[in-house]
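Dear Dr. H.,

I hope your travels went smoothly. While you were away I took the liberty of generating a structure for the chain from your last submission, since the lab meeting agenda had it listed for discussion. I wanted you to have the full record in hand beforehand rather than looking at slides cold. The sequence, exactly as received, is reproduced here:
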Amino acid sequence: MIDLSGHVRPGDGIWWGQAAAEATPLVDALLDQVAGIGPCRAFCGLTWNRRLARELPAELSIVSYGAMGELRALSRAGLLDIVPGHYSTLPRLFAEGVLPRDVGLVQVSPPGPDGMCTLGIGADYAADALRHTRTLIGEINRRMPATTGTPGIPIDRFAAVIESDRPLPAAPVQPPDAVDEAIAGHVAGLVADGDTIQVGIGALPTAILDGLTGHRDLGFHSGLLTDGVLRLVEKGVITGRRKEIDQGLVVTGTAIGSADLYDRLGTVPVEFRPASYTHDPRVLSRFGRLVSINSAFEVDLTGQVGAEVAGGRYLGGIGGQADFSGAAARTGARSIIALRARAGGESTVVAALRGGVVTTARADVDVVVTEYGAAHLRGCPLSERAARLAAIAAPEHRDTLLHAARKDER
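The corresponding predicted structure, in token form, is as follows:
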């Protein structure tokens, strides 16, 4: 095991990559050794590391942009600090030193003939953070594919490295069900041939991607790449031919999916770019046919979206939803929020957001979709929105929602 004591100082801020790009052996070493190092503050995103779901060492505190994966357990235990910012602001927060940046723990591909390693499938915020990082410690994984789109890292940039030969962890899989497929059918009717799409991860996004197989010449520009995107590329649906920029390319920040996805990235014209590019409002404004497709916990009767808090706990995050929804609604083609009409027996279309937090403003939502249809909100006055949204709510909740709307009008 690597000894971190010569590289990490008491009071340091530490960051590491997320999902399959997480340098898990280095993170585990930190968890094992931080008691002997002293107090440290760490930043990470989506994690599948179960050790981070347990009680943390007293010397380590964790901050993130959301509560994803095993961080949800920390959130429930009150051990997770949240920075409620748009994903597009993460590069600036690292640059300003607001987020931890003294030490970076990164998983990289083996150095090529030029002596350069790459961030492989996890460029996103890591590519921006390492520019401002004092000490970089690397896990050189023989199974991490070398990728393009982000400058390489010279081997002498690392203060220390370990070598590994471990499979990249596959994302947990939850297959779509009939409800997801019904929602996907409505979303497909809102996407036109030649549009550039952004979509997230999970059963519903998987169903939505699979529902686009009848489309042609779609583009893809998103924070993450999944198996569903790979399938559309292989079927000739995603070609990027009509993209205003990055024509012919799949552009993303990270890949999250199966071992098959990671192994076949070399067959896809994909570039992994930093968050300072994938989520930059100036970049997104250049896509005149951008369609953002995002999910939520709840939507109120005016179209405000809650995607952070559920059941009184912080279980989501702003992420890139507001970045892409705002761009799609203002300068792109369409901003879509897709969600199931029920969650835990309760309506997800609500009179007022139960979580009390607005993730995406109603002005940045063009269409809300459930399994019962699509509520078109672009240009729709407040006086008509409640009726349109109640019409796509679960039938047993519609009268209650309309009653609440009439009460608010008085």
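Two observations you may find useful: The chain has two domains: 13-164, 178-409. The mean pLDDT is 96.

With kind regards,
E. W.
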